[in-house]
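Predict both folds.
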Amino acid sequence: MDALLLLVFGLAVLIAAFLLKPYFDWRFSCCQSLESQVSRTSFPCSPGELVPPQWKAPEVALSIVVPAYNEEYRIPQMLDETLSYLESRGAEFSYEVIVVDDGSEDNTYAAALSTSRDASLRHGEVRVIQLLYNRGKGFAVRAGMLAARGQLLLMADADGATGIRDLERLERALGPKDEAPQIAFGSRHHLREEALAKRAWYRNVLMVGFHCAVWLLVGGTVKDTQCGFKLFKAKVGKRIFSSLHLYRWAFDIEVLILSHFFRAGLVEVPVTWVEMPGSKLNLLTGALTMLRDMALVQALYAFGIWQPSVL
């Protein structure tokens, strides 16, 4: 009987540790400055200077944040295409591309640095940040967004699945006025029928189940929360990512929740998208952890344990 009780207790501890892991990850991180979690940067960075002060005006028109984990072979092509496009927009369009190496085990940092040095950049620059160890895509995006200096902040995946020229669609959707939407989510929802026809049945079941869970826990106003191509006006982007608590795959859901908290207008914009090989997401474990994270974030906000940051 004692052995059985011990086994039950051990299982309960393991289940609780799994369910509360995002909370403990956040508690560990919030006790440290962002600089203390960075291994190196490609640009001079004194302590306390990585994140620009909130009162400081943006220095460039656009910041593109690219989270990268073990992307040694895909990041060069993505950067080449992105930089060629950005340079083609002319001298009046200033930009920066911030690649955040999420503690990669390969040469992602060196690959990003080499590609940026080989490019002939006249109107912008590439900044590379390497984290001490792997923290998750959400944390990497958060680090890049907080370090960004742009009037507009774009999140883009390292695989280049969404064409960089679709940035213009998102820009037009935001518009110049303060009352216009402040966030534009790239969306693949218009490609849903084609994706259902091509994907294996179990992938379709998981995808439909995920969308149902999002609808139940968050609401169904956004059809595609997980597309890795999102544009923010600087003020609301800084507020959202300084408030972010989820650091793994489900962080997009918290971005949506925080956009409601801050009453930031949000628009969904169809984008081109190509499914790229080399995904880092395991379908089964990814589905379980994302479901856990979605439920946990709602519970912790509901009980006031997690709250948006006040800037």
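Second protein follows, with its predicted structure tokens after the sequence.
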Amino acid sequence: MRLTYCFHVIGALLASVGLTMLFPIGWALYYQDAGLWPLVGALVVSCGSGALLYGLTRRRDKLVMNHREGMAIVALAWIAAGCAGALPFLFTGMIPTATDAFFESFSGFTTTGSSVLANIEALPPSILMWRSLTHWLGGMGIIVLSLAILPFLGVGGMQMYKAEVPGPEPDKLKPRIKDTAIVLWKVYVFFSAVQCALLLLGGMTLFDAVCHTFGTMATGGYSTKNASVGHYDSAYIHWVITLFMFIAGANFTLHYRALRGDIRCFWKNPEFRFYTGTVVLFTLLVTVCIYGTQYDSLLQALRFAAFQVVSICTTTGFATADYELWLPFSQALLLFLMFLGGCAGSTSGGIKCMRVMLLLKQGYHELFRLVHPHAVKRIKMGGKSVSEEVIAGVWGFFILFIALYIVSGMLLAACGLDLLTAFSAVIACIGNVGPGFGAVGPAENFAHLPGMAKWILMLCMLLGRLEIFTIFILFVPEFWRK
């Protein structure tokens, strides 16, 4: 492990994060708001410290990153980005404590969307733009990560796609990670531009359209309004955001194929079929629950149900209603979706549909073996056999995910939180969902939590966003040995 090389790359990434602050600085100049100098100060500190770290660790020989260094860089890069992202919040003075500033920043870059802000609309527009931009940057970052780093961990998910795409055929992704990243960025920017244009047509201001687009495509959920998307009493806006949340929760490599003309790739992909079927089924169930009890119109019930189901399933966290006022069965359905998440290779969090499918297939496989103990039967996905290593990796991830959920929930309970708040806050952060239930529901925020609870949840956000193994592996002694 070449730590000097790792910090050399981290320095460049830190400076790059600082340069992205030029975008909200432009909005600060336009609005002449109080966020200008805090953003300038944060840019100087981030770029200066990044350039210093880059210069002090500079090497003349050309190096090739190995997968262990890649994983270390990813983990450290997210931490560095979270620290840099907190500076504008601190320098404005509108988020008084460092803990709250770090919480808001880490929640942004991990695309969690949990917030400590009671009055979001009181912040300067430029700071709100920076807050939303952290989502957008973190969202695409996780897509590149899932293709470049996570396959080495053997935890299921993108290894399946890697096995399907072994070479540079014309209808598949590029063979080099750099080219793949560029392609996916283009897809990400394309959908962002389309959504922003559609929101403008729906009557949103350019500022609000850009911020909500950032929160949607990154499946983050930061809004510029205290009532989230519920602020807009517009069926058109609700359906547009619902559609693009669904798009963001699907595998972006499928979007790339579709844009190249292979529309059938969606239906041929078993994970996308599972994801779509789940969204449709849960939308219908929730619609039945809230029709006649919360909403008198069937179309209105369908709209609110679809929005909330897609928002929770894709771990976006936008809200158009306080779902804690819905029937308990509806809330139970949404709680389950917090664990599920979207597709592998998407910007969503959670366990991911691919892993859930493999776990279900493995469960059925064990039942089949009890009936036919001498039969030779392999678990298949999309007509292709899944290796035992991938299955073992999925089980390892699932066990760590549940263990982290239980331990973190108990720690939050020890901090004085009631059980509903504690355990829903944990899954909201590990799954990068945003709002939970109880005292951290869609009509509440995380500001009132004890400081220790916030740091525990920040760690949960990071672990959940980086698929757990990427952080835990740093504590394995063998990881650092040559």
